[in-house]
């Protein structure tokens, strides 16, 4: 079938096939799974941020009606189970590898699903109660008595890194690594000859992902085969299988992971959670399926959190406004366990963004604290550093009297300079950075802003406008595999390791198959969340889904066509040179003598007169390791209005231009950009996972306290896609899922500060709540007095 007729190939704005099923309630999530004879687990969580466990009394709980087992960290160790196998460093060759400047390996503490020694953050699971019903398990959990020796806690990022801070793990310091990146001597020399130096210190606050679907797991153990089956929504089925096997001490083939629909990720589901392993362990011990569903208040306490980066930065300029160098320090808060260093590792290497920066030097550190562990979240580390860079530029423009756009244009890397290696050793591929900014300025009507600002002033309101450029880096697990089978029954099955958590893979991956095999999109079936079917796959993270998926799908379809052509030679009694494949059919050139793809599949399955190597399923696979990174980029513009009497900020308009290289489904990409901007708005204006500095208690443990963006907080976006084909991708594709968030923090705060410039406000920290904005205005008014 001609894709131009069915309109479902690459570049077509196809509506998501999965949406009708989902909006009708036909989704199938982990909590929807049930097994005969299942029992239920509840976690007993620490009420303290830091406390030594003197003992855990379980007798009363075990005697409670319906309780089947009470398991602790001591039981876990007694069974010889292993800690969670964190892989905190990104090993991708395109990433800048950070190492301790003293040569000592970074500190990585073992992370046991149930710690036996002490609790390290409020909400950490210390015991598990399994009972015949959820209510019986909850009642039993109330009867577990834990004897605590409460210890001093530290939650503040900078305080946690001090030598005298309470130690989270048995180490000389909470600081896990202390690295330096860049050229210190060249940077110092550049600062020495600078005409101006702009300084900026900030803390990019901690947030949490709050996916729509709370975490859940269901596990069973087959005593006869010694095999575990675990249902759990996560970032990728294969990694979860391997991690579970490592914890349980079995071979990977002894674990099967199943996941169907997954209700959101953003990085918070990017790796295994302790509870997944605990449920599988309990299923073996009890000989019954065990189910666990987290409650929202537990999610706030124990979901992986994100951001939490303290930065001190300086930007050196010459007398013409050209950047000479930048330097500073990034300190990331890992929380209680060393789950991932990407916030610091992947962030610091992109500090200079897409600006020409002759020299740079940064110190990069990560510290433990008595808070929930942090992980990559909607572009790990890059929204934070782009925020710093774009705020530095606005501050420098203000201090030196430059126009903000002119200063950016003067320092943006040009097309002729690409590929360009930034001062931290990262080489950007290609693009049109200046063109992207110009398009965003036009889309946001930057030229007409003075008129709108004056009109607002007459109404007693203060308008501000912000602009920001960004570049992202997409790496992730470099290996991916696709398997495609053409069925004689009229469908094409795609098996791939990239699980969807809302990205629309069921549609966009099917579009690729439609484009290259010429089959109707409705006949493409998508399999990704069953490790008995998917043997290799890195999941969805770091913008790798479409970037890697497109490569292995293309090569697999090429294999299908190649084999199908050889079958067609037999069926059409013509040489391959005389046959062309088009619109899903193999046809003798210049004739109507043809055979369809599904007919070829049927012949392969049924005809005994075909050569041996052409009989059987019409199938092909591609297992590829892609070592090239990708660098999506763009520019956003935001306009706000501030009520100086209340401090309320209203988003008036938001324009975004994101370069995705080649858009497979522009409709889905626009939706991803919209969602990414909303997450940026949440961090800039509302969200803060706030801990009490003395007790270490999370003070934003519910939706009553943790403010999420709503539709009424957001304007109608004006978004456009730029498509400069990537020079490092065979199909020109760049990732699209994270670009909405990366510059959003910067442009929103830039706009707010611009609105308040007449008051003398220099900066406002995130979240820019009405109270914080009002206080900044009144502090500035006080200085005037």
Walkthrough of the structure:
This protein is an alpha+beta fold. The chain has 21 helices and 28 strands. It has a seven-stranded mixed beta sheet with strand order 3-5-1-12-9-10-11, sandwiched between helices. A five-stranded mixed beta sheet has the order 7-15-14-13-8, sandwiched between helices. Helices cover 29% and strands 24% of the residues. The protein is globular, with a radius of gyration of 28 Å.
Averaged pLDDT: 95
Strand content: 15-25%
Give the N-terminus to C-terminus distance in angstroms.
75 Å
What's the total helix number?
21
Helix content: 25-40%
The largest beta-sheet arranges its strands as: 3-5-1-12-9-10-11
Which spans of ≥5 residues are poorly predicted at pLDDT below 50?
1-5
Number of strands: 28
What's the story with the biggest beta sheet?
7 strands, mixed
The whole-angstrom Rg is 28 Å
Shape: globular
Give the class from helix and strand content and strand pairing.
alpha+beta
Which keywords apply here?
7-stranded mixed sheet, disordered N terminus, alpha+beta, 785 residues, globular, 21 helices, 5-stranded mixed sheet
Summarize the structure in short:
The chain is of the alpha+beta class and 785 residues long. The protein has 21 helices and 28 strands.
Q: What is the topology?
A:
Layout (H helix, E strand, L loop, with lengths): L2 H4 L10 H7 L15 E7 L5 E7 L1 H5 L3 E6 H6 L39 E2 L5 E7 L2 H9 L2 E6 L6 H4 L14 E8 L1 H9 L3 E13 L7 E7 L4 E5 L5 H12 L6 E4 L15 H13 L3 E4 L2 H7 L2 E13 L5 E13 L6 H7 L10 E10 L13 H19 L3 H8 L8 E2 L5 E2 L4 H11 L5 H10 L3 E10 L7 E8 L5 E5 L8 H13 L6 E4 L17 H28 L6 E4 L2 E4 L5 E3 H10 L11 E8 L7 E10 L6 E11 L6 H21 L30 E6 L21 H12 L14 H15 L1
Parallel strand pairs: 1-12, 10-11, 14-15, 20-21, 27-28
Antiparallel strand pairs: 1-5, 2-4, 2-6, 3-5, 7-15, 8-13, 9-10, 9-12, 13-14, 16-17, 18-26, 19-20, 19-25, 22-23, 23-24, 26-27
Helix pairs in contact: 11-12, 12-20, 16-17, 17-18, 19-20
